[in-house]
Amino acid sequence: MSRRAAAVAAVTALLLSIGLLVGLETGAASAGHAATGATMSTVATVPEPVVTTVAAPTTTQTLPGSGKTVRLGDMNTPEQFIIGALYGVALSYEGYRVIPNRNADFQPDNLKALRDGSLDLFADYLGTWNSGVAHLHHRYRTLRASFGAARLFALHSGYVLLPPTPFSDTSCVAVLAQYARANHVYSIPELARGAPIIFGAPLRFQTSGDGLPALEQSYHLHPGYVQRIADNVQYWWLRTGNVQAAYCSTTDPLLAGTKYVALQDPKQIFGHGNIIAVTTPKVLTDEGPAFANTIRQVDRLLTLKAMRGLNAEYQLGHHDLNQIATQFLEGNGVLPPARYAPVPTTTATTPTGT
């Protein structure tokens, strides 16, 4: 090929490539205009890269309680049923298989069951433990002193007591909130300094050394008249004005409202009724750290206000125990909110509120 022919061929190839490029740009711009209605541009737009997010593969997490069983006892009272449900739901969430025993209301049997391994944990009241198990009848002014004595006895006897709950369930004295405001009475000493009153109480409280005699001895409370009343009707007697003060329990569900006031007991004459979880060193070892940590986490939430509210949900609202426990634990961050359904436990007779 001559030099002239080669030059002509090169120029021709260059023109063809330029024409092809212009055609491609024009086609792309026209397509863009047709799709968006925008003004055609002579500069081609490079599309953003499409990023596809791939979910990380899920792995099966072994829960700390997987393959482990907890035999859980609670005493035969509505409040104990609630505490048992709280423990059961929280432990089930950690993977434990929970078998409830809702008739564990006799301390010697409970302790024997702990020793022979047919029970792993039950909830007791600190004052009841000290008097009924440790036979310590000293009146402790502080919770720390009371729990210290109880824990020391447990240690020497082969048991373990987990730290007490903030709430304490003991006897107390209640008045109408209206009466408290009108007479500036918010403690038992203030009630004792006022005018003689009609005091309502069941017979056992009138005669027990931890009842009315203790009020008379420690606070010099001498009612003008003592009206004998049955259990569970003291609030009716207060509401109707037939008595000005009455025996009550600190965690009564009606005390969750604003109609009644439980008077302060500065000398702690009614003792300390905080819940203590009772177990053994062997159980703590076998069940692993998550077991005790879960119980402690639940117990720390049980303030007096919380326990009165829970009692009201169950005893007055007649709601399901597991629903009450689940909602409470979700609301306090122990369980993820609205994502957890309680793991069914071994069936037991469902108690009814009283």
Spell out the blueprint of helices and strands.
Layout: H1 3-36, E1 69-73, H2 78-93, E2 97-101, H3 107-116, E3 121-125, H4 126-133, H5 143-157, E4 160-161, E5 171-176, H6 177-183, H7 188-193, E6 198-201, H8 203-207, H9 212-219, E7 225-228, H10 234-239, E8 245-249, E9 260-262, E10 275-279, H11 281-287, H12 289-300, H13 304-316, H14 321-331
Parallel strand pairs: 1-2, 1-3, 6-7, 6-8
Antiparallel strand pairs: 3-10, 4-10, 5-8, 5-9
Helix content: 40-55%
Order of SSEs, N→C? HEHEHEHHEEHHEHHEHEEEHHHH
Shape: globular
Largest sheet features: 5 strands, mixed
Beta fraction: 5-15%
Mean pLDDT: 83
Beta strand count:
10
Structure description:
With 354 residues, the chain is α/β, with parallel strands linked by helices. It contains 14 helices and ten strands. The chain has a five-stranded mixed beta sheet with strand order 2-1-3-10-4. The chain has a five-stranded mixed beta sheet with strand order 7-6-8-5-9. Helix 2 (78-93) packs across helix 14 (321-331). The longest helix has 34 residues, at 3-36. The protein is globular. The model is unreliable at 1-59 and 347-354 (pLDDT under 50).
Short description:
This protein has helices spanning 3-36, 78-93, 107-116, 126-133, 143-157, 177-183, 188-193, 203-207, 212-219, 234-239, 281-287, 289-300, 304-316, 321-331; strands at residues 69-73, 97-101, 121-125, 160-161, 171-176, 198-201, 225-228, 245-249, 260-262, 275-279. The chain has 354 residues and is an alpha/beta fold. The model is unreliable at 1-59 and 347-354 (pLDDT under 50).
